[in-house]
Amino acid sequence: MTLKATALLAIGAIWGAAVSAIALHPDVWWTLVFAALATGAVGFGRSVGLARVLGIAGIWGGAGAIVASDPDHAWISVFAFLATGATVYSSMNRDAFLVGLAIAVAWVAATVAVVATGGGPWITVLAFLTTGAVANLAEGRGAGLLAIVAWIAAAVLIVLLDGYHWFAVFAFLLSTLQFGAFGFRFPTRIEWDFRSDDHSDSVR
What we know:
With 204 residues, the chain is mainly alpha-helical. It has one domain. Helices cover 66% and strands 0% of the residues. It has 9 helices and no strands. It has helices spanning 5-24, 31-42, 50-69, 76-88, 97-117, 123-135, 140-160, 167-176, 178-181.
């Protein structure tokens, strides 16, 4: 089996974050189970691409920082694993760096909001949902930029207001607007398909 450099980078980011958190709080050792599952999702022989490496590094870097700040939030490693799988098996291009950055920013923004305010760890679930949405879009550039702006704005407002974590809901909703604003193709003409002998692929 050939080892892929990008896979090794992604796996290194996963274990670096998980082990660092456990070094501070040994009682959350079970998060290694989800780090191992995330490793299996990546695989050593899979060429994931640098864009996915960027996203996975953001996912686990954020999750590890939250767990390190409060071991009661160790359950976030479950969603870090799920977000890793959503990123690895998504349809995003290998060079979709703006999409990878959007995934990383969503998790880092959620981390900043949680650590700075000491609450609202549930917003990482929204970061996971954002990951799945952004990573599977055909037109990822505009969608990625929108997600970046939305999550940074949400994190700033949450920190400045010392709470109001529901701003993350708006960040998630704005991130998913791309399905309509960037992914919808407007029709260009009408095809008059009333003939019964029309056996083209478009009507099958």
